[in-house]
TrEMBL record:
The keyword Ligase applies. The keyword Transmembrane helix does not apply. This is Long-chain fatty acid--CoA ligase. Residues 419-493 form the AMP-binding enzyme C-terminal domain. Belongs to the ATP-dependent AMP-binding enzyme family. Residues 11-369 form the AMP-dependent synthetase/ligase domain.
């Protein structure tokens, strides 16, 4: 397996004049981008960074962030990209935990960096702004003449370290090697049937596995990475039309926002022939809406994680709504009965359990950064236990039903929130929906539906709709709450914990002629 620096050199050799990256007025071919990357490699060396050192970045999806990613691959420096919304405390943790040797940031994160004691003592690169004391301006680095960069890392070297979202504890570092990163990118190309010269919208953040995969995959096929630094529906639609984007790889939330925007129907999206989604389940309603709106040649449901990029793939998502398909090219997947420690204890078809993935696959990590307790929990008998729940149907297709921690146990029955969400999403008055279990003295937990409406509807109507769709009584919502927005993470993941804790905003009383929170009799 090639290291990623050599892999990029191969791309330059194949397609030197192909358009590689677009960001506003910046348009670079592979040959031109390689020259810029070479300058940054020399700049990293001037900062004192050596192969194996960690470089933390806190940047949006701008061409400088993509350039730094590639420069690190050439230099053998391990890039550690963070959410640009990170707090000073979160930045301090990542800098200390990763043993960072330098930091790169842009103006949007300037206040965070200024408030970080750990950042103050590190060499810093300033992107998009003048350099302050102890800093170097990225613009000065990239403008310098430099010798063509050579690959300084092997395929066995670490490429990057992503940090998990840390919903209940400090985020965990997920170190990944060059060979695993390239294997994941190759699988992404194959599983999405990408052709030479594809163009993708670079909107999924480069601190997220989906964003990194889009960046690497485009390089393998001489494709174009069209940067969208911060998600804006209007700007995304403009770029799709103006740059003739051929494929989209987004979380369901962003798809929802695109097709429900006022400008969507007037936008030429005919160049988009391939859709892919990951990061969360897609409701049946949104799946149908996207199929109608784009009529894509390929519609891929990709199920995976930062730890093991691909778990399963379904290349025809509308064929069997809710199905995550079968194991990807580089892995094996099985459903293990709840509570089983032995990964060989496979659940029967239709039996719900925890989803496990072989830990020795080409796309897999080898353990968390300095977190042996997390390794002990997740890695057992050569398999990675994902913490996700699901079942395989009689055809062998996997259905993901939620997280182990999200399962609603009501009256002794296990209820998956995803099933109820998919049902409610098909109601014409429902724009978005999230289902959680709320504490109840009698039942343990009761099913509660949080609805963002697009039209007037009463809780009793929604319960009747679910009953007519075939949901049994213990799965019917006992409480319905109409909210202004469904809380989500920066990459569009549903934050159920905020609904459970009451951290949400009720729908405005004037929105529709009904109460905002109603108990529905079942």
């Amino acid at each position: 397996m090639l290291d990623l620096g050599t892999s990029f050199l191969a791309s330059v050799s194949r397609d030197p004049e192909a358009l590689a990256v677009v960001d506003g007025g910046v348009r670079l071919t592979y040959a031109g981008w390689y020259r810029a990357i070479s300058s940054v490699v020399e700049g990293l060396d001037a900062l004192g960074l050596r192969p194996g050192d960690r470089l933390v970045t806190i940047l949006q999806n701008r061409w400088e962030a993509a350039t730094l990613h590639w420069a690190c691959q050439f230099a053998g420096v391990v890039i550690v990209p963070l959410n640009w919304r990170a707090t000073a405390d979160e930045l301090d943790h990542a800098l200390a935990d990763s043993d960072a040797r330098a930091l790169v940031y842009e103006p949007v994160a300037a206040a965070t960096v200024a408030a970080s004691p750990a950042a103050a003592v590190l060499p810093r690169l300033a992107v998009g702004a003048a350099a302050g004391p102890g800093e170097t301006a990225f613009a000065d680095v990239v403008a310098r003449d430099a010798a063509p960069a050579r690959a300084a890392a092997s395929a066995e070297a670490l490429s990057l370290m992503l940090y998990t979202s840390g919903t209940t504890a400090r985020p965990k570092g997920v170190p990944r090697r060059h060979r695993a990163e390239r294997a994941a990118a190759l699988a992404h190309v194959a599983q999405n049937l990408y052709r030479r010269g594809e163009r993708t919208l670079g909107v999924m953040p480069l601190y997220h596995t989906m964003g990194v995969r889009s960046l690497l995959a485009m390089s393998l096929i001489g494709g174009t990475f069209v940067c969208l630094p911060r998600f804006s529906v209007a700007e995304a639609l403009r770029l799709v039309a103006a740059e003739r984007v051929t494929n989209l790889y987004l979380v369901p939330t962003l798809y929802h926002d695109l097709v429900h925007h006022a400008a969507f129907d007037a936008t030429d999206v005919s160049s988009v022939r391939k859709l892919g989604f990951a990061g969360a389940s897609m409701t049946d309603g949104l799946l149908a809406r996207l199929t109608e709106a784009f009529r894509p040649d390929l519609f891929v449901n990709h199920y995976g994680s930062s730890e093991v990029y691909t778990f399963t793939i379904d290349q025809d998502a509308p064929r069997k709504p809710g199905s995550a398909g079968r194991a990807g090219l580089n892995t094996m997947v099985r459903v293990v009965p709840f509570g089983a420690r032995d990964p060989a204890a496979t659940a029967h078809p239709g039996e719900e359990g925890e989803i496990a993935v072989i830990a020795g696959g080409d796309e897999a990590f080898e353990g968390y950064w300095r977190r042996p307790e997390a390794d002990a929990k997740a890695l057992r008998g050569g398999w990675y236990f994902t913490g996700d729940t699901g079942y395989a149907d009689a055809d062998g297709d996997l259905f993901v039903t939620g997280r182990v921690d999200d399962m609603i146990i009501t009256g002794g029955e296990n209820v998956s929130p995803v099933e109820i969400e998919s049902c409610l999403s098909l109601h014409p008055a429902v724009s978005e929906v999230a289902v959680v279990g709320l504490p109840d003295e009698r039942w343990g937990k009761v099913v509660a539906a949080f609805i963002k409406r697009r039209g007037p509807v009463q809780p009793a109507e929604l319960v009747a709709y679910c009953r007519a769709a075939g949901l049994p009584s213990h799965k019917l919502p006992r409480s319905t709450v109409f909210v202004a927005e469904i809380p989500k993470s920066p990459v569009g993941k549903l934050l159920r914990r905020r609904l459970v804790s009451g951290d949400y905003e009720l729908e405005a009383a004037s929105a529709f002629p009904s109460h905002t929170s109603v108990e529905a009799l079942t």
